[in-house]
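I am still getting used to backbone structure tokens and would like to learn alongside you. Would you supply a protein for us yourself, any chain you care to pick? Start from the sequence, derive the backbone structure tokens from it, and show both lines together. Go ahead whenever you are ready, and we will take it from there.
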Amino acid sequence: MKKILSKIIPFFGNFFFATAFSLFVWMIFIDPNDFISQFKLTRKLHILDSEKLYYIQKIEEVKVEKNQIFGSHAQIEKYAREHYLMKKQTEDIYIVKSKE
């Protein structure tokens, strides 16, 4: 037991081990760009990338809808009536909501 202990203690007193261990502790806990923060930032980046793909898809859907709506005057009028409840002066609007 004393032989093993006598070999282990000088290893921990070694300059290179002490330096490497200090650097390791610094990188794990103290540094502003530590491994834990890097992991959290990487996870957040993946979430933002997935949101980016979602919004790119939504932008494409809106572009298609815009091209369909602005195709004719009748389509513009229909869209305004359905989405913005616009009406002519001689008309009345009745809104019917379903129980879903």
